[in-house]
User: Fold this.
Amino acid sequence: MKYSTFVRALAVSGALLLSSVSFASAVNTGVNDVAIHGYDPVAYFTKDKAVKGKEKFTAIYNGAIYRFASEENRDLFKANTDKYAPQFGGYCAMGVALDKKLDVDPDAFYIADGKLYLNLNKTVQQKWLEDVPGHLKTASRKWSGIQDLSVADANAEEE
Assistant:
């Protein structure tokens, strides 16, 4: 797939998902301020898979509600949020590299250097995996410019 075609497809996919993404800026949350669609951020590290959290095990971090599969996972998160919270506020890492704030598929995740990165979907994740160090460098640089923007403003087409 050509890069320009990929970027267009990513923008269209992201636009379709905007209705399910909160307009809070720094953290990707759903309608009820729940991060990662209710999936347990600790389970990515301990189980190496996406695991749905339970409403009875929650923690609030950066204004978002995180759910956990167990009390133990919640306590691990509270003890070390920097380790377990998803990078780029839980927005699509590849999207951030492209100056966009896009929602994620909780199953499209990647852990690099002890940090959790999520992607829009498995197709976008494959593009991310082609050059994780390069995309990560770009995303890290661009995040500061879009972090505090609303989703709509971050995803607005430049004229």
The radius of gyration is 15 Å. Confidence is low (pLDDT under 50) at residues 11-24. Residues 3-149 form one domain.
